[in-house]
Prior knowledge:
seven-stranded antiparallel beta sheet, 35% strand, globular
Amino acid sequence: xxxxxxxxxxxxxxxxxxxxxxxxxxxxxxxxxxxxxxxxxxxxxxxxxxxxxxxxxxxxxxxxxxxxxxxxxxxxxxxxxxxxxxxxxxxxxxxxxxxxxxxxxxxxxxxxxxxxxxxxxxxxxxxxxxxxxxxxxxxxxxxxxxxxxxxxxxxxxxxxxxxxxxxxxxxxxxxxxxxxxxxxxxxxxxxxxxxxxxxxxxxxxxxxxxxxxxxxxxxxxxxxxxxxxxxxxxxxxxxxxxxxxxxxxxxxxxxxxxxxxxxxxxxxxxxxxxxxxxxxxxxxxxxxxxxxxxxxxxxxxxxxxxxxxxxxxxxxxxxxxxxxxxxxxxxxxxxxxxxxxxxxxxxxxxxxxxxxxxxxxxxxxxxxxxxxx
Length: 373
């Protein structure tokens, strides 16, 4: 980076660095959030090869480290959205989504794709994600350029499994923190195109699970929220919590922060093993984010996401009544005894509050709970 005289030059150097040092696309490694020195070294040494999302997050992390603003761009084609909305299209032969990066250069956002070491231009002007989408919709002919950087075998834009303009059918741009462990991975959606509810909920929401049976031996820890908040649980001061007697649970109106903690349990020390967190209740509006937090490192071991339009129910559940006959679930494993907390956080479109009804939270042994209806 010493040879970079401008942010433009630095962004291209870092893009080429992530592209050329990331040896292969598979196998898929753990997504590098937060981007620690160890994870960075694993990526650029080829020990932790990444596909598009991992490459984009590593690139954003390096840009943030050099004080160059950058944000995550999630793309999808029409089939990706239609597949999540129709059970007939549930099986996809190949991925039809893509992750890339916008970088703030010369007072504007410009698309820089580390997966292909490229940017796009029209009439000599570098384009942002929405500008590129509009250029294709207007039947114009934007061109890609690697800024003179070499292209590796089987890593060119021309060898992408799907025409790039197809994954511009839906564009979602999010601010995301990569480096700070306390905020790493939290994102704020700043724009979607076409406008409307973000397709992230449809594409990335976690599946509901058949309700956990009531056999006590399957449960390691159980909290009853049918009437009030359990002893030791804490709540965000800005969150509104009340006894929802009609639904036999507690009502929660979150604040508007996306991924902001709303309710959290007392620390629980668990021996090594495979577990599930089960949350029984309803997401009435917005979304709910379940997190299993390692209290020694303040990093999430596991997360799951649910939203009010959830329809991927177990087969024996009424699709109009998914939450009442199913549980929200986050699986996690511990190699050794660790103290953990269960976090219930807001997961919303842009900066909006969500409304939940929560009846019960349980930790169960994974191996004793059937995952089939």
